[in-house]
Amino acid sequence: MRSQIAIILICLIFESCNDQQINTKPITPGKKTTIQQQEAQRLLLPDTVISILVKEVSLKHSRPLTNKAAEKILYEYFRNKGVIPGSEVPAGSESDQNLLCVDYDIVYQIQSANLSGGIVSYWIGPPDLNGHCFQPIKAIILNTDRGFIITNEEFIPQGFVIDSINENTIYGYEYECGGRGVLRQFRVTLRTNDEDYFQYKVDLKNHDIKFFWKDSSDQPLKNFDNLNRWLNKHGKQLVFAMNGGMYQTDSSPLGLYIENGKVITPLNKRSGEGNFYVKPNGIFYITKDKKAFIETTDNFKYNSNIGYATQSGPLLLVNGKIHSSFKQNSVNVNIRNGVGVLPNGEVIFAMSKQPVNFYQFARFFKNAGCKEALYLDGFVSRIYLPSQNWVQTDGDFGVIIAEVSAK
Question: What Rg value do the Cα atoms of the chain yield, rounded?
Fold first, then answer.
């Protein structure tokens, strides 16, 4: 994953209470890990699925994360943020409330088929902070191409206590120290980003991406099976395909559609109901010299070098920022597909495997490194991706974006 999360400045008045022994199962090696601090509130639900946000996870040099190594990583990480270990607090500064220090607690190892690391437990606050109700913070350390690194400073709220880990599931509870009681149980299933989405990355210089709508008889192709049959007649075959934007009842594109340099339907700047009209919406287009772009509808300028284009909405990312209307905890979930463009010009096509909201879908593209991304459609979404053992040939939609090759 990727993004660093700012240190939480904890300004709490802690009420001392007597120790209470809580019977818990021992922590066992688990599987998978985490998300951003912003995701914490979702854990108020008994069952939650969260996704790891580090893209360079590696098992090339998989080895257990020891307590000694975890402590060193933790202290180095916070030293870079101006927070020193508690053991290094200068003499006479113990009561300085403006000074923050960090103290290591313990690490719970994670070792699975695709993740290696652990959940590290630690305290952060003024040097003289104490009290039995002061729960440690939990962060994630993972083995990446850069070695073990902290991927998230906090992935569950501070009041939640880990009880046990079994494979990819964390069991725990929210404990209220003052009242000496368990408020609720929780279970968190941890997944990697790769597991949540079908994704296909292409370098346009090496991949033949085309847009399709109708066959040579002027009939809408409507699905990948029809497209593949039509291609076979012309000595070609499908490598990858995805529905490519919203359409009307007659399967015609709802917005701008350009195929082989020809404008088939014009730019749609109207206002209306539905996702297409959530502004800003935009256009995904590919030039004749094989360069991909995503542009807002308002800023789009037609030029004769455009080979293919499809208009849809809303835009998921604009200049690296998630659409301002998306809500992190929205219950508006659906299977969704979309497209993003990376700074190096490569294109990522993606479809969620499970229903997700717009914020989650936009965050996927942001975490993948895209600066611009466009939503294509929802429950009608299909993807043809035999290289990942996933082939959907049904469907009834308009534009199809596809990679083709010689048969």
Answer: 25
Residue 87 Ramachandran class (φ > 0 left, ψ -120 to 50 alpha, else beta) = alpha
CA distance linking residue 136 with residue 65, whole number of Å: 19
Pairing of strands 169-176, 209-212: unpaired
**Would you give the DSSP letter of residue 42?**
G
Q: How high is the pLDDT of residue 393?
A: 86
The rounded distance, in Å, linking the Cα atoms of 29 and 142 is 14
Q: Give the per-residue pLDDT at 361.
A: 93
Beta strands per DSSP E along 126-261 = 137-144, 147-152, 160-166, 169-176, 181-192, 197-202, 209-212, 236-243, 257-259
Token output for 47: 């069952």
Q: What is the DSSP string of 303-349?
A: -TTEEEEEEES-EEEETTEE-TT--TT----B--EEEEE-TTS-EEE
Three-state DSSP at 21 gives: coil
DSSP calls for 224-274: HHHHHHHHHHTTEEEEEEEE-S-B-TTS-BSS-EEETTEEEE-------SS
**Residue keyed to tokens 């220090």:** 101
Residue ranges in the chain modelled with pLDDT below 70: 1-62, 94, 113-114, 129-133, 145, 167-168, 178-180, 189-194
Residue-level pLDDT at 75: 95
8 A C-beta contact, residue 168 and residue 191: yes
Per-residue tokens: 27: 């922590």
Two tokens, residue 3? 């993004």
Residue bearing tokens 């630690």: 122
pLDDT at position 57 is: 62
| Predicted local confidence at residue 144, as pLDDT | 77
The whole-number pLDDT of residue 147 equals 85
Backbone angles phi, psi at 105, to 5 degrees: -115, -75
Q: What is the pLDDT of residues 49-100, one digit of tens each?
A: 555 555 556 665 567 889 999 999 999 999 998 999 988 888 877 677 778 8
How far is it between the farthest Cα atoms of the chain? 86
Scan for tokens 């075959």, then name that residue. 237
User: Within 10 A of 148 (CB to CB), how many other CB atoms are there?
Assistant: 19
Q: What is the pTM of this model?
A: 0.61
